[in-house]
Amino acid sequence: MSISKDDYSKMTDKASPNSPKVLNCIKAFLIGGTICLIGQILFMIFEKAGLNEKEVSAATSSVLIIITAILTGIGVFDKIARHAGAGTIVPITGFANSVVSPALEWKHEGFVLGTAAQMFSIAGPVIVYGTASAFLYGLIIFIFRLLKAIADYDKIEEKLKEMYEGNNNDALERKEFLPEFYQSVDYINDISNGFERAIQDRIKSERLKTELITNVSHDIKTPLTSIINYVDLLKKEDIRNEKANEYIEILDTKSQRLKKLIEDLVEASKVSTGNVKLNLEKINIVELLNQAIGEFEDKFESKKLEVILESKENEIYILADSRYMYRIVENLFSNISKYALENSRVYIDIIKKSNEVYIEMKNISKEKLNISAEELMQRFVRGDKSRTTEGSGLGISIAQNLTEIQKGVFNLKLDGDLFRVELIFNIL
C-alpha cells in the first residue's frame, strides 16, 4: 500500500504533540538569563579580585566553558537544553556544548583516544578558522592604528613647532588622537596655556610699566621745566657772587642731565614696546655717518680721539627712518666719547656685502670690561661700574631696539678692552 507525501505529512502532524511555544519561550528566556546572570556574577567576582578588564573577561569566559563542558560530559546540560531550548545557545555555552557533545559519542574508544581526541578534531576547524580570522582582523586593526599613530605624532610635532615659532593660537583636540596620546596632548595644551598666560601677563606688565613711566615722567617734567626756566633767568641776572654763579651752573648742568634722562627713559619705554611710528625713506648711510662725525667732532677732540672712517663706496642707500637712524648713531658716538680710552683711535668701517651693508664701530675702553655683551645691552646697565661718567645706561638699549624695529641687526661684541658694535641693514 503506497502513501503519498501529503498523506504522510498529515499523519505525522496528527500523531505529533503540539508544542507549547509560549511556555518554551518563557523557559528559554529564564534559563538563558540565568546563564548570563551567572556570567555577570563571575565577572564581578574576578573584578573584585583585582584583575584588569581583559583578564576579567578571559577568566569569566574560561570558567563558563569549563562548567558547560563538565555539565555536557555528565549529561546535565542536555537535560537543561530540553527545557530551555535556544536559551542554552548563549555564545560561550553553546560553543562549549557543540564541541563536547559530538565527542561523547566516541567514549567507547576510551577517554583519551576517544572523547578527548574527537573533541579536539571537532574543535580544530573552529579554532583554526577563528584564530586565522582573529589574526587578519588584528593585523588590519594594527595597520590602521599604526597609520593613525604616525598621523597623531605628526600633529603633535607640528604643534610643538608652532609653539617654538611663537604661534600659540589653537589647542589640540583630545578626541582627535589615539588614547595613547591623551596624556601628551594634555601636557602640550597645559604648556601652551601657560605660555599664553605668561605672554599676556608680560604684555600687561609692559603696558603698565610704559604707562607708569610716561605718567611719572610727565609729572616730573612739569616742575623740571620750571626749574630750568628759573635757572635760565638766574643766569641772566647780574650776580657777582662767584659761589652763587657756581651753584647756578651746577643746577643748570644737573637739571639738563635730568631732562635728558627722562627723555631717554620715555623713548626707551616706547621703543621696547614697539610703540613708535616709522617714516621710512631713502637714506645715504655713508653721508649720515660723516655728518654725525662732524657734529661730534668737538667731543671727540676733547677726549683726543682720532676717528677713522673707511668706506669704498660714497653712496650706500638703505630704507630707514632718518630721525631714528641718527639717534642710533648719536647714542653710539655718545657712548664712545664717554667710555673710549683717551689718546686712542676709533675705527668706523662701512662694508658693502651683496645686498647688505655692514657698519662696524670699534674702540678701546678706558675701563676694564668685566661684563658680558648681553648684560651691557640691558637697560640701565653701564660699562662704568663706578658710574663716575654721566649717562643713563639706556643708550645702547635704545640703539638696539631702534635698529631692530627698522629690520636691522644689532651685534655687540666685547673682546678684552675692545668694544665692537656691528649694524647690518638691507641695501636698496
Strand content: 5-15%
Poorly predicted regions = 379-383
* SSE string, helices as H and strands as E: HHHHHHHHEHHEEHEEHHEE
> Based on the structure given, which CATH architecture of the domain at 280-426 is correct?
2-Layer Sandwich
CATH superfamily membership of the domain at 280-426, which one?
Answer: Histidine kinase-like ATPase, C-terminal domain
Helices, by number, come to 13
Number of strands: 7
Global mean pLDDT: 78
Q: How much is the radius of gyration in Å?
A: 47 Å
Task: Indicate the CATH topology of the domain at 280-426.
Answer: Heat Shock Protein 90
Shape: rod-shaped
Q: Which structural class should the secondary elements be placed in?
A: alpha+beta
Q: How are the strands of the largest sheet arranged?
A: 2-4-5-7-6
CATH class of the domain at 280-426: Alpha Beta
Largest sheet: 5 strands, mixed
In words, what does this structure look like?
β6 and β7 form a beta hairpin. The protein has 428 residues and is α+β, with helices and mostly antiparallel strands. A 5-stranded mixed sheet has the order 2-4-5-7-6, with helices on one face. A two-stranded antiparallel ribbon has the order 1-3. It has helices at 5-15, 21-48, 53-73, 76-84, 91-104, 111-164, 182-236, 242-272, 285-295, 297-302, 322-339, 373-376, 395-405; strands at residues 280-284, 306-311, 317-321, 345-353, 356-364, 409-415, 418-426. The N and C termini lie far apart (121 Å).
